[in-house]
Design brief:
It contains 18 helices and 14 strands. With 461 residues, the chain is α+β, with helices and mostly antiparallel strands. It folds into four domains: 129 residues, Beta Polymerase, domain 2 (2-Layer Sandwich), CATH 3.30.460.10; 118 residues, CCA tRNA nucleotidyltransferase, domain 2 (Poly(a)-polymerase, middle domain, Orthogonal Bundle); 133 residues, Alpha-Beta Plaits (2-Layer Sandwich), CATH 3.30.70.590; 43 residues, no CATH class. The longest helix is centred in the first third of the chain and has 21 residues. It is globular and about 80 Å long.
Length: 461
């Protein structure tokens, strides 16, 4: 066996579900489907397993089953949605399980039964191409993968999923903006193996268009980072969720793995102690309400828009934002920024137009009459300048005033919470706040700013 083959075999031994786990998952899945079939008799056409469990591509430790309730197209939205929730929650409870409502295009039920996560999702039984909801495609996806994924390629899918998951590249939800399970399966079907895929991906140039069947979609969306036409619905880009950054990470991961292959890429590696990596760095934390009960994709979309809006405000007033990220749990939402400095000098250089510009005298008159200008205007290199007093020297003070006054472009759904946000720029206070909010791991990873696959690369030298 080659060195790479030995590495992949070792990784597979760690990620394949154990026999006991599969038996436990199947027992819970079959029992729930049986009870749901009885409960939905007369309203649903059929009840099926979908997702990774149905396709045999489930990873160890991720016992999760998608159960789809297929309704005829004549069923109205109230029955489709409310009836599914009412019946499925009742059945899950009767089996001793717990549940919570989740939201995508429409509500569905996430249940927990004997250590197994079960998602009960309504869909319409439609002909191919006559989609009513987004999930109506899912049974066709399952059918396509089961027909086209060869038995020996199942392990290749497991390896790809595990590789992506270890470096936070797996998942099509907005929070991650990475590779879906279906995308992973299609990539292995297309390239045959993980090694072939990584070899190709290491040479990808953005934007990536996979196959001639994707060219039509590229014409419609020339700026999409990557396009792979869905074989079930050729008008849909399977890779639409993948952001430019996550695609770039995957390309670099492919290069790193091929240069220094190791089982380390399939494992998570803890970040360094942040007491060391904090030295000389400037952080600003915006901490506010959790909203964890809301739809994750809607909420993360609002967090992303608000984070960008706050970054623009900071940059506008001279606080150079190096990068930012966010974390959400049941206790709070935190948007964390790294700045060149959270405290700026009292004075700033203010540049104007060239002396030859028709607006030059407007700049001169404004500078001469302003109480904020302490020197100038003068000319250097043909352009006008003056020295001004800064309006804000503290990043926290700037945001406190602008957020409370509604002067920062943030998502409407978060605006009120952000007006009351805690703004922290002292490193000890930030560490204390995030530790109390059970976000210590997020803080450590933010400060380290090194993706897991590059830590694996370093360990594999």
């Amino acid at each position: 066996m080659s060195r790479l083959g030995s590495i992949l075999s070792q990784a597979l031994a760690e990620i394949r579900p154990a026999k006991e786990e599969m038996e436990k998952t199947s027992k819970a899945a079959n029992l729930l489907r049986e009870r749901l079939s009885e409960a939905f008799s007369g309203t649903a056409l059929r009840i099926t397993f979908e997702g990774s469990y149905a396709k045999g591509t489930m990873l160890r430790g991720r016992s999760e089953v998608d159960i789809f309730i297929h309704y005829p197209v004549t069923v109205g939205w109230e029955v489709f949605s409310d009836h599914t929730i009412k019946i499925s929650t009742s059945v899950i409870s009767s089996l001793g399980g717990s549940y919570r409502l989740r939201f995508a295009e429409h509500p569905y039920v996430e249940g927990f039964l004997d250590g197994v996560t079960v998602n009960v999702v309504p869909c319409y039984a439609v002909d191919r191409g006559r989609w009513i909801t987004a999930v109506d495609r899912t049974p066709y996806h399952t059918e396509y993968v089961r027909k086209n994924l060869r038995p020996e390629q199942v392990d290749e899918v497991l390896l790809l999923k595990s590789l992506l998951m270890a470096s936070d590249l797996y998942g099509a939800e907005i929070r991650i903006a990475g590779f879906s399970g279906y995308m992973c399966e299609l990539l292995i079907i297309r390239y045959g193996s993980l090694e072939n895929l990584l070899s190709e991906a290491s040479r990808w140039r953005v934007p990536v268009t996979l196959g001639p069947e994707s060219e039509r979609l590229r014409e419609k969306d020339p700026y999409a980072p990557i396009i792979l036409a869905d074989p079930v619905d050729p008008e849909r880009n399977t890779a639409a969720a993948i952001s430019l950054d996550k695609l770039s990470h995957f390309i670099l991961l492919s290069k790193a793995f091929l240069r220094r292959p190791s089982v380390n890429y399939f494992r998570r590696h803890p970040p360094v102690d942040f007491t060391v990596s904090c030295r000389g760095r400037s952080l600003l934390a915006v901490s506010f309400d959790s909203f964890a009960e809301r739809s994750p994709d809607v909420l993360w979309g609002e967090i992303r828009r608000s984070g960008e809006g706050i970054a623009r405000a900071l940059n506008h007033y001279g606080f150079n934002v190096l990068r930012w990220d966010a974390c959400l749990n049941e206790l709070a939402t935190v948007i964390l920024y790294e700045l060149s400095d959270v405290r700026l000098g009292e004075l700033m250089l203010h540049g104007g137009p060239p002396a030859s510009n028709e607006r030059a005298m407007d700049f001169v008159e404004k500078a001469l009459s302003s109480q904020e200008v302490v020197a100038g205007p003068w000319i250097k290199g043909g352009r006008l300048y003056c020295l001004k007093r800064r309006r804000y020297t503290s990043a926290a003070e700037l945001l406190r005033e602008k957020l409370s006054g509604g002067e920062v472009s943030v998502a409407r759904g978060l605006a009120d919470a952000l007006k009351k946000a805690r703004l922290l720029e002292n490193l000890d206070e930030i560490a204390g706040e995030l530790t109390s909010l059970k976000m210590e791991s997020f803080l450590k990873e933010f400060l380290e700013a090194c993706p897991n696959y590059l830590k694996a690369y370093r360990l594999s030298s």
